[in-house]
């Protein structure tokens, strides 16, 4: 299941391209949080049922200010509840895979000790990795598309192809 969150989806060439390829794939569910919860009032029980129905979870979003759009944070806060996703008796997510699929506006070389962003993407995504670990999920390497606003149509097609291959890898092990 792709948990998709982009507050201005129609303006995003990269996220539209990635989502379009995923929509054409069998065995992939796309759950758009901004479409479903424009009012930010998340139906926790419905979200938990969706999670129980899927073995692979992909949080897909633009990388805003070293994090995710606010609806992702709200979703994490209310859906991954103590006693359900983690903590005493919280094993509902145990064994599922968790992957972040993010787009950035900056070039890959800007993410590292010598770059303007100072830290690698792996370091910046650590809070998500820690959340996955707490929920007993199997963390998978993130799928990152850099320089998304400057991508040529060919580079965008290549990124979409690579994203489809990553999803196929999850589906077929």
Automatic annotation (TrEMBL):
<dbReference type="GO" id="GO:0009055">
    <property type="term" value="F:electron transfer activity"/>
</dbReference>
<protein>
    <submittedName>
        <fullName>General stress protein 14</fullName>
    </submittedName>
</protein>
<keyword id="KW-0560">Oxidoreductase</keyword>
<dbReference type="GO" id="GO:0003955">
    <property type="term" value="F:NAD(P)H dehydrogenase (quinone) activity"/>
</dbReference>
<dbReference type="InterPro" id="IPR003680">
    <property type="entry name" value="Flavodoxin_fold"/>
</dbReference>
<dbReference type="InterPro" id="IPR046980">
    <property type="entry name" value="KefG/KefF"/>
</dbReference>
<dbReference type="GO" id="GO:0010181">
    <property type="term" value="F:FMN binding"/>
</dbReference>
<dbReference type="InterPro" id="IPR029039">
    <property type="entry name" value="Flavoprotein-like_sf"/>
</dbReference>
<feature type="domain" description="Flavodoxin-like fold">
    <location>
        <begin position="2"/>
        <end position="165"/>
    </location>
</feature>
<dbReference type="Pfam" id="PF02525">
    <property type="entry name" value="Flavodoxin_2"/>
</dbReference>
